[in-house]
Design brief:
Layout lengths: L19 E3 L9 E5 L1 H7 L9 H7 L11 E3 L3 E3 L2 E3 L7 E7 L2 E6 L14 E2 H16 L6 E7 L3 E3 L3 E11 L5 H9 L3 H15 L9 H23 L1 E2 L21 E2 L23 H16 L5 H8 L2 H17 L8 H15 L3 H8 L7 H4 L6 H14 L6 H9 L9 H11 L5 H11 L29
Length: 478
């Protein structure tokens, strides 16, 4: 499909008027293409040749509006660090329409009704982080939004200092958030709340349309997807950093990449967001916050769904989370199936990693090639006895596998990534980009699309994070 053949739809605009506000994008000055995602273009049905034209840059910049475009910002509320804010909304994201079931947003395209005192812009560093990280999560098999393209510009944007503005064109099967429901519940706008519920079911849970107890089952599905997402974050070592209810997807997606981080050394108490003074969104606290946010959603849905039925669904949250998490961790350790005692082995392992300050991703990649020779694993930590003790138990557990060592290794190498997108890697890319060298963006992009491959040319990014670059904390503006 050529750009001039695109015909957008806007199903969200069929909701009551208070759910959204129409707005026109404000194009950046002297825009240029930094990177385009051909895989997402294919999902949308756009010819890849179109991605490298001046017209495409205009499209991402909001200067070219295809047929059917009717740009708008979405309204929502949210609990931010536990405190309710009754009016938030898309302050720097402008929805331009839906194509092939994917809703497209321009992030950084100017002010909206919900920008408050903000300028509605996004800077280059944060845009690079979202563009690369959304693709990295997809490469790891974790549900996420995606991005079609990243453009830069000569447009000046002030944060702590003057920076260059950028836009990410991001796509998602849904942008509805827990906080979207909270907004209308708080305002007691129950007609809008009901319409939003029906819209969310049709968009993300169409199998529930006209099904008995569809509304209670809808909430149950959100509980299930959220629990599984939390388990996947924990298993891969991902810390979101800002799990406000306005950053929680009703469709169970990872959305809104800000001060996120992959773990360097394993630390359950790690906090990646320096705004989070009390560790509300620390790595180890994420599953509990998932439950907290679901209870906030439950309160918002209570005018429409019986609390008793939603409570029944909530009782399943920890069961679903623990079962999925344990299953993922057993895969990471190379076990054929989950057996009694495996959870204790996982806890023993994580305690050992934390005590020895061992790099989380490197440990599992090294374990993937474990043959009984302990030298490679032991050198990951300064003290050997704690790891020796865990390996004694691990060897006993491996003896219960029916698969061969080779089969186990092949499985583990496709389960434990060689590369995750750590913050020090991103900072190297950002530093180069701010000097107009965008080549590292493409290199990292290719790595994260297949993080399980060897990529021998980039071996330096597969080791433990250098000590001086570990455990970086970032701000929400990241």
């Amino acid at each position: 499909m050529k750009l001039n053949e695109i015909k957008l739809t806007n199903p969200y605009l069929k909701l009551p008027a208070e759910c959204h506000d129409r707005v026109k994008p404000s194009p950046l000055t002297k825009p240029f293409l930094i990177h385009a995602n051909e895989a997402v273009a294919e999902m949308l049905g756009i010819d890849k040749e179109e991605l490298y034209t001046d017209e495409f840059v205009d499209f991402v910049n909001g200067a070219y509006q295809p047929e059917g475009s009717d740009a708008f910002a979405m309204c929502y509320a949210g609990h931010q660090f536990g405190f309710f804010v009754d009016r938030l909304g898309d302050g720097r994201a402008i929805n331009i329409g839906t194509l092939n079931g994917l809703h497209m947003q321009l992030k950084g395209a100017g002010q909206t009704k919900y920008s408050r005192s903000g300028d509605g812009r996004a800077v280059l560093r944060s845009s690079i982080r979202e563009y690369l990280m959304s693709e990295a999560m997809h490469g790891l098999g974790i549900e996420t939004t995606r991005a079609l393209a990243l453009i830069g510009s000569e447009h000046s944007v002030f944060r702590q200092e003057w920076e260059k503005g950028a836009i990410v064109l991001r796509v998602s099967p849904s942008w509805v958030r827990f906080g979207t429901f909270e907004y209308f519940a708080h305002k007691k706008k129950f007609k809008e709340l009901e319409a939003l519920r029906d819209y969310a079911i049709a968009e993300s849970y169409p199998h529930l349309i006209d099904v008995e107890n569809a509304y209670a089952r809808f909430f149950g599905e959100v509980v299930k997807r959220t629990a599984r997402l939390m388990a996947e974050w924990q298993a891969v070592g991902f810390n979101h950093g800002v799990m406000n209810t306005d950053n929680m997807s009703i469709a169970g997606l990872t959305i809104d990449y800000g001060p996120y981080a992959f773990l360097d050394e394993y630390d359950a108490g790690y906090i990646c967001n320096h705004t989070d003074q009390y560790g509300r969104y620390s790595f180890g606290n994420q599953p509990s916050i998932g439950e907290w946010n679901l209870r906030a959603l439950m309160a918002a849905l209570s005018p429409l769904i019986q609390m008793e039925k939603m409570e029944e669904n909530m009782t399943q949250y920890w069961k679903i989370y623990r079962e999925h998490y344990l299953k993922l961790m057993c895969r990471k350790m190379g076990f054929d199936e989950v057996l009694d005692g495996d959870l204790d082995l996982v806890k023993h392992m994580l305690g050992t990693l934390q005590g020895l300050h061992i790099d989380y991703t490197l440990f599992f990649r090294t374990l993937s090639r474990y043959t009984g020779d302990r030298a490679g694993i032991l050198k990951l930590g300064l003290y050997h006895k704690p790891m020796q003790d865990w390996l004694d138990d691990y060897d006993k557990r491996l003896a219960q596998n029916s698969s061969t060592q080779q089969e186990r290794e092949e499985r583990m190498l496709q389960t434990n990534p060689k590369f995750v997108l750590k913050n020090y890697m991103l900072q190297e890319v950002i530093d180069a980009a701010e000097k107009d060298d965008f080549s590292l963006i493409d290199r990292l992009f290719r790595i994260v699309q297949d993080p399980y491959a060897e990529h021998p040319a980039y071996e330096r990014w597969a080791g433990a994070t250098p000590d001086e670059l570990k455990n970086t904390k970032l701000s929400c503006s990241s």
